[in-house]
Amino acid sequence: MKKRVRIVIVSTVALVAVAVLALFVWYQTGGAARLLKSRVVASLAEMNIRAEIADSDLALRPGSVRFEGVKLYPGSDSTPIATIDQINVTFDITSLWSRTVELKTVELVHPVVNITFDENGLSNLDAIKMPESTGGDAESPANVQATIFTLRDGQFNYGDKANRIDGSVTNLLLSVAPKAGEPLQRRVEASFSGSKLTVNDREVPEIGMQLAADVSETGAQVENVELTTPLGVVKLAGTVSSWAEMTYDFNVGSTISMDRIGAIIDPAAGLSGGATLNGHVSGTGTKYRFDGELAGNDLLVSGARIDGLKITGPVEGDDSAYAWGAGQVVASRLTMAGYDVSIVNFAGRVDGTGLNAVANGAFTAGAFRGG
Question: What is the pLDDT of residue 19?
């Protein structure tokens, strides 16, 4: 009897040793790399995205894998919607038996994404679909709760033939990491530079952006957003209290170059000069409200020169409908077609939809010369 017990014990230990050795060999010979690769390919296939990975291998230190020459194709398209020079991943294998991993870091090097719309509005995005939910509480094979995602030297290209809009975002940097002490939040930092936007063959070059925010599944605390273009600079800071309702509250500060805007929108409008827009904007969904001030000096609009312009009062709207009221338009001087008017003032309201607007109020002016 004792002999049989010893046989059972020795046999069990031997089987465990063989299993551990097999798993060790599987890991050291690239099994982990193949596991991650298969997980990535399978997940993308659920979205009707075909993935091609030229090469993958484990790095010299354990728990690190590199994918090179990644190409993603939407549906049966022969042109990739995205290419990635290299993906570097560090991970811990949480269970060799069930082949589950915890991703520690994921780095994308020089990803290039191309989004296009043809003359009929059809896009290379149309073939992509979101995977259907399987229901239940099935555990994902890859845990990403504590993963640090980084992207460097990224590029995003956009082309819309129907609306004659083209653009590219270049030198894109992105970092998404768990926020210390806040397990449900992610610290997001992003920037790009040297980008461009073309509308009706008129190009806006040298566009740049910087962003820093703490983001959760429900909302975000936006520390800073700064967009710089030859048209002007826009700065935002505030909160998004609900992604679902799209409820936001921001302080806004901007400078505007009227001549550069005119060159893009309508070169015949004769716009020139500079202006500032500062205030507070809030809203939910398509509804919004702006309280602030638009100020400008030495402005030229279609032959009319305006000095000391100041527009105050709240603007409220819903989609394309808007109303401005309880405010004033004041200009220290207005010259136009041989007329020179000082201390121009309009107090009233403007209601409109799109480019159609109706103004009601009182107009007053000081000294009047010309005629």
Answer: 37
Long-range contacts of 57-62, Cβ-Cβ distance < 8 Å, separation of 24 or more: 57/30, 57/33, 58/28, 58/30, 58/32, 58/33, 62/27
Residue with tokens 């083209």: 166
Read off the pLDDT band of 172 (50, 70, 90).
Answer: very high
Backbone angles phi, psi at 97, to 5 degrees: -70, -50
Whole-angstrom Cα distance, residue 28 to residue 101?
Answer: 15
152, amino acid identity: R
Counting residues of the chain whose pLDDT is more than 90, the rounded percentage is 35
For the whole model, what pTM was predicted?
A: 0.77
Cα of 233 vs its chain's centroid, Å = 18
**Tokens of residue 241, six digits:** 């209290």
The first and second tokens of residue 369, run together, are 């010369």
Place of tokens 């030297």: 153
Query: CA-CA distance, 353 to 371, in Å (whole number)?
Result: 35
Cβ-contact 81, 73 below 8 angstroms: yes
Neighbours of 65 (CB within 10 A): 21
d(CA 208, CA 227) in angstroms, rounded, equals 6
155-to-115, 149, 169, 172, 192 alpha-carbon distances in Å? 11, 16, 5, 6, 9
Separation CA 84–CA 112 (nearest Å): 6
CB 359 within 8 A of CB 349: yes
Token duo for residue 150: 């980084």
Per-residue pLDDT tens over the stretch 206-216: 999 999 999 99
Sign of CA dihedral 358, 362, 367, 370: positive
